[in-house]
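sorry for the late reply, my laptop died twice this morning and i had to redo everyting from scratch. anyway the thing you sent over, i finally got around to it. pasting the sequence first so we're on the same page, its 58 residues, then the predicted structure underneath. double check i copied it right bc i was rushing
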Amino acid sequence: MTTPLNLNKIHKERGRTSRKARANENAVAFGQSKAQKEALKARAEQIARNLEGHKRET
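ok and here's the structure:
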């Protein structure tokens, strides 16, 4: 005879693995280093300044 299975433990473990997999996918999709974030922010500010300089006065 086999040992009884605790279905609560199986359910919790399945949930943990799915959450971990989703976290890893999000880390790849959305994760950026601090240097990358600062570079993107600096580029956005440069674009905003350039756009502001090219606006027509009305």
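The chain is about 75% helix and 0% strand.
thats about all i looked at so far, will dig more tmrw
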